[in-house]
Amino acid sequence: LDGVVDSEKVKSNNLNVKIPKSELEDEEKGMEEEPPRESDSNILDVSSDYPRDKHISIQRHLAELEKLADLREDEKKPCPLCPEEKFKACYSHKLHRHLQNLHWKVSVEFEGYRMCICHLPCRPVKPNLVGDQTLSKMGAHYHCIICSATITRRADMIGHINRHVNKGETESRFSTVHAPKSSCEVVKESATDVQVLPNHSTPQKTDSYFNPKMKLNRQLIFCALAVLAGERKPIECLDAFGATGIMGLQWAKHLRSSVKVTINDCNENSVTMIKENCHLNKMKVKLNIREEDNDETTGDGEENADTIEVTKMDANVIMHLRSFDFIHLDPFGTSVNYLDSAFRNVRNLGIVSLTSTDISSLYAKAQHVALRHYGCNIVRTEYYKELAARIVIAAVTRAAARCNKGIEVLLAVALEHFVLVVVRVLRGPTPADDSAKKIRYLIHCQWCEERVFQKEGNMVEENPYQQLPCDCHGSMPGKTAVVLGPLWSGALFNTGFLRRMLLEAVQYGLDEAQPLLKTLVCEAECTTLKHFSTHSPGDENKQEECGVYIKTPNTSADSYLVHGKRKSEAVLRGAAKRPRAEHSAEHPPFYYNIHRHSIKGMNMPKLNKFLNYLSEAGYRVSRTHFDPMGVRTNAPLVQFKTVLMKYSTPTYVGAQAEGPVHFPGDVQVGEGVPAAAEIKVEEADMEDDKAAVAAAVFAQSYPTHYAAD
């Protein structure tokens, strides 16, 4: 009877495979001694190439799937993946087409295996309205090769496999299935190797986020840390959100014994990958004492050199427990939730850098989110990137002031994907008060894009529109201006610190950061790139940073380094009383976009030529990294438009050479221009009426046509 029951089970699963009589007799003897198991009836070991515990619907080749049916031309065979009531037994040619079209073509591939669709009663059935739970109405499904789950739809099966891959679960849970190759790939950046998952660029779906587009951001932070390491050694630095650990590994690998690196992450999988990446770069790993009593060290080197401490804590917790000289915050989104902890224990004259990637709110695309996170009211303007940088600095200033600390902004960069702010911490209530006073509101005209910071003081003015240089409120109907802020109204750059960062970038061969740092130095000094030099401007040999003058001889470019001793509070206060050098005047706030203020029907001059024209007019001028067509200048918007109008040419004059449009005081009329055109040029108000300027130029270019009119 046992043999009959077993044969019935084999038939029910449509695995009609001929077995020799000797094997049947041995099995019958074994069945008398041992009861049958359900797993033996559902899974049959057909080929030695495939494990016994792997489902028969998971195969590598179509021929191996056909081998399960034991195709012969003279006999009808059933489908091994369909019940008899769904697909009756047929000859080999018809069964071959059935396996190929119904099972193989709709399979899901993973690591060389094909998970074919299965119609066998392998999964439980939900009761229907009548309450019948018969297995004959079972639908099609797939068997996962990793976790043995059953999925009904092919799209869901593909998503199910992708979720396994995103979590790093690529090894099958079947005991005898060969483990597939590792899904991690090795990425090299700045002589540092890191392992990343295949979905490393999607932060929502991975534990170890790695963005190759942030390479420039990492290079700028490294240069800032290298400058601080030249001031005092050794320094304790923290990468609060390690992810793959790429940033902390670069610090330790290039700066060596000058820094003591701590990489932190609250995710266990990320901490594991950070340790593996440390071993990959032959760095020693010092585990947190709270995790293990004994430190784990691997690699070659000295006892303290090439050692990285890896911790698994919340970023706020580790910054509350320990003090650091350098802290970098790079969370996913805004970093305002970590500012109070960062400034709580940061050491005096230390550096805090933070990268904000919530550009949708900072760039005024989600204004309600900016109000919720930063307490700031903003609108979309032509200078929205600099506006975003000043919003972040204002939040940093308020957080530092709550801890009785002031800040000195060393660097503020706003690019396509991030906003980077690097500040130096000044301990004491006096620097905190001085920094807090630089947070002010901004009045922005929505007609002409003119802007000005509100005057200091708490007195309410009767007409705040009078603070704007433009007269749009009088000439335009309704309310023309809005109040933005609160914003940081101080300088965004420190020239001496940027010059030393540039030297570090040249020393370590950071090619991507060098052009940006040169632009930042020119922007901080408000000068053009052709006047740029590696030495301090003018004949003075001092740079001012944090109220302290740093002597830097002009004969050596490598001497832009601060001495290793930390300055006391008395020295800082005494040095701050010295008058500022003339060249260290703050750069003008904000910039103008030359395309935004171009004249319709006129060709603008080249940007570099326009910078020279503004400089010749007596204004400070430079390009800006915030906008490739932006001009940072202290000229009012009216003068900016006047110079732009003067050196623009009409678009409809093809053969006319580029040159200035002369104004009424110095109009030169050609020989062929009739007197009527000259009278009209003299009578027109060239500064107020743009149409008159265009008409006058047209009269000079086409005298015959003008005389006929």
Feature tags:
17% strand; disordered C terminus; Rossmann fold; 24 helices; alpha+beta; 709 residues; Phenylalanyl-tRNA Synthetase, Chain B, domain 1; 8-stranded mixed sheet; disordered N terminus; 25 strands
Low-confidence blocks of residues: 1-52, 125-137, 175-182, 289-303, 536-543, 546-584, 654-658, 662-709
Largest sheet: 8 strands, mixed
CATH architecture of the domain at 185-289 and 305-455 and 477-496: 3-Layer(aba) Sandwich
| Fold-level CATH name of the domain at 185-289 and 305-455 and 477-496 | Rossmann fold
SS-based structural class? alpha+beta
Tell me what the structure shows:
It is found in: Nucleus, Nucleolus. Residues 144-164 form the C2H2-type domain. Pfam families: TRM (PF02005). The chain is of the alpha+beta class and 709 residues long. Among the domains are: 58-125 and 139-166, no CATH class; 185-289 and 305-455 and 477-496, Vaccinia Virus protein VP39 (Rossmann fold, 3-Layer(aba) Sandwich), CATH 3.40.50; 590-651, N2,N2-dimethylguanosine tRNA methyltransferase, C-terminal domain (Phenylalanyl-tRNA Synthetase, Chain B, domain 1, 2-Layer Sandwich). The protein has 24 helices and 25 strands. A hairpin with a 2-residue loop joins strand 6 and strand 7. Helix 10 packs parallel to helix 11 (339-345), helix 11 (339-345) crosses helix 14 and helix 17 (495-507) packs antiparallel against helix 18. It is elongated, with a radius of gyration of 37 Å. The termini are far apart. 36% of the residues are buried. Mean pLDDT is 76; it is low at 1-52, 125-137, 175-182, 289-303, 536-543, 546-584, 654-658 and 662-709.
